[in-house]
Amino acid sequence: MHTPENEALRRDADDPGHRHLFHIPPADGGRYPDTAYLAGNSLGLQPRATRDELLADLDAWQRLGVEGHLESERPWLPYHELLTAPAARLVGALPAETVVMNSLTVNLHLLMVSFYRPAGERTRIVIEDSAFPSDSYAVRSQARFHGLDPDTTVVRLKPRPGSDTLGTEDVLDFLAREGHTVALLMLGGVNYLTGELMDIPAITAAGRAAGAVVGWDLAHAAGNVPLALHDWDVDFAAWCSYKYLNSGPGALGGVFVHERHLGDPSIQRFEGWWSTEAATRFEMTPVSRPPATVEAWQISNPPIFAMGPVRTSLELFDSVGMPALRERSLRLTAWLEQLLDEVTPGRPLSVVTPRDPARRGCQLSVRIGVGSANELTKRLRHEHGVVADAREPDIVRFAPVPLYSTYHDCWRVAEALAATVEKEGS
Question: 0.90 exceeded by the pTM?
Answer without folding.
Answer: yes
